[in-house]
Amino acid sequence: MEDGQIIVGVVRVELSLPGARGLKDKRRLVTGLIERAQNRFRVCAAEVDHQDNWRRATVAFACLSTSTSHAHAVLAKVADFVERQADLVVMEFQVEIR
Questions:
Q1: What is the pTM assigned to this prediction?
Q2: Could you count the other beta carbons within 10 Å of the beta carbon of residue 98?
Q3: Quick one: pLDDT at residue 3?
């Protein structure tokens, strides 16, 4: 590892929201997920796609680290956390480490 190295890890999660009955329900589900993940794992998060589709959402979670293994570990915990949410169905995960 080089001194001052900054590793950026991003996990992009595509979600189905079977319980959402409209955009208001979607916002409640997605905002709640983002806030819980931010508080628990100290990651940055935002909805990044499907903003106008109330049955789907794509949320990205990002972390900064000085080591690739730490970034992978944080993102794995976030992915596991998202998968355990009862009101969401994970359709796809994409992890990128730079």
A1: 0.91
A2: 9
A3: 75
